[in-house]
Amino acid sequence: MTAYINNTKFDYHQGETILDFVRRIEKKQDAIPTMCQDNRLENFGSCRVCSVDVALEKDGPAKTMASCHTPVSEGLYIYPNTERMQRLRKNIVELVLTDYPENKIFPSEGKKATPFQETIAQIGIPSIRYPNGLNHLPIETDTAHPYIKSDLSQCINCYRCVRACEEIQGDMIIGMSDGDLQPI
Ligand code: SF4
Ligand code: FES
Fold it and tell me: How far is CA 164 from CA 41, 56, 65, 116, 159, in A?
């Protein structure tokens, strides 16, 4: 079973996603930027940051596919980081940043970067071309819980917490309501 990455042929594994294939061949976890994907969870395919160009022939007409959600198939030509994909990723992050605190784009001093801050650093900060619209920035940080501090003004709707609650804990006690995280 073989497919191509940037026109070089490699063997792929049965059922392997394009994301895992490219990561394995390039030996880099961040070979393709991601946002909603988490190795501990089922792939969700919602943010499209991991999109790649895919063609059926060498340098042929390309379609955009979410690499975390698409299995490799025989003879596929995968182009992970074309200019078109870099622009697309920047556009997606630009939209997310219209509802994200400006002072949280970089990690706070002495703090580890959040996964989203790592994604921003990898993709590059886009200029925001859209006016401020409805947002959830005024939500105050909740420090009432002894184990979890939640700052939902930084929520990017990746659903990882909801999916972890359901898939790992088996609890299904949080969900999204009108785009905001809520207990259910
Ligand atoms: S609160 Fe949940 S949905 Fe929001 S960014 Fe964090 S993990 Fe993602
Ligand atoms: S990382 Fe693949 S769709 Fe979000």
Answer: 7, 35, 24, 17, 8
